[in-house]
Amino acid sequence: MDKTWNNKAWFLVLPVLVLVAFSAVIPLMTVVNYSVQDTFGNNQFFWAGTEWFEELLRSDRFWAAMGRNLIFSFIILAIEVPLGIFIALNMPRKGWGVPVCLVLMALPLLIPWNVVGTIWQVFGRTDIGLLGYTLNAIGIDYNYVRDPFDAWMTVIVMDVWHWTSLVVLLCYAGLVSIPDAFYQAAKIDGASRWSVFRYIQLPKMQRVLLIAVLLRFMDSFMIYTEPFVVTGGGPGNSTTFLSIDLVKMALGQFDLGPAAAMSLVYFLIVLLLSWVFYTVMTNYDAER
Question: How confident is the model at residue 280, as a pLDDT?
Fold first, then answer.
């Protein structure tokens, strides 16, 4: 007997599709339109073809900013993922300490990005900031406004403080899902702490670690608000990431065509690198 399918429920999805069209597709098409045109103001546009894309790919400014982005993302992942795993492993599984630790871990994630930047901007000042004043008092010449290395360290520590909690919470969720029988069997076999981590805990965290790595990579590669508030992209261009350079080009210089082309290339790079991360990690998980 043939089964009759009722697809009327799809009408409930139409409002979502319309909302996505207005909030994502239409702005994207507008950017695509700007990327192949030039304007001198007064809403007059002239066809430019692929000129802006060719100019962008030959630009040392673009490749330098992307290099800074990749280095920053690599450093962030190298610090936050191991640190998040370590903290999650040492968090309590039972008792009153569980909600306390979870609340403390969630607090940095609740702070808006611009507020985080403002906090660390004041925190790192050498005149009134606790960090800057203390480092200078003990003999360390610290000034994130003048020294590129200090600016990088400030931005990295700020991101670690802000986002390591996300990795911790994801890893903790994977750990608490492990049945006690696994630990009891490992104890009977006399397994060491490293063996328990290597063969029980780490495999159970692989799925959440995949999510954590993807989220942290995308967030760190697209970072804008925090470093812009703290350093403004300086000193010089030392902390000018692609997002900051894009905003400077679009709003500061009002080069809509090059900025639109850069935003599309930026989007494709994030999409491609995220796909590579996802493919490599899922294939590794499937082979195990």
Answer: 77
